[in-house]
Specification:
The protein is α+β, with helices and mostly antiparallel strands. It is built from two helices and three strands; from the N terminus they run E-E-E-H-H. A hairpin with a 2-residue loop joins strand 2 and strand 3.
């Protein structure tokens, strides 16, 4: 049975997505607050990115697949999480080509 979770998402003064937290039994995620910037203005991350959380969930399922608990459903979930990561990587590459990655520019 799913335990559920609570999420709190914040916007900055311009109504852009900012940080937030997602909490559930056994986990707390502090989301990245603000863009990282570009070039000389680039900053270190201060929170988690969706890609990292998806990759962590995929890693856990990979672990199950190397155990006696391997199954077709885990394999399907791993495939779908991998597809999500490909889609998000494509978004990042597109933003890099347009020189807007690390900013709030569309």
């Amino acid at each position: 049975m799913r335990q559920g979770f609570d999420s709190y998402h914040w916007n900055d003064e311009q109504e852009n997505p900012a940080g937030g937290c997602t909490n559930g039994v056994g986990f707390t995620i502090s989301w990245q607050n603000g863009p990282l910037g570009r070039g000389a203005d680039r900053r270190e991350p201060n929170g988690a990115f969706v890609e990292d959380i998806i990759a962590a969930a995929r890693d856990r399922l990979d672990y199950y697949q190397r155990s006696k608990f391997n199954c077709d459903e885990n394999a399907d979930a791993i495939r779908l999480l991998s597809e999500a990561l490909v889609a998000l990587d494509s978004r990042t590459k597109s933003r890099e080509r347009r020189a807007v990655e690390g900013t709030h520019a569309l």
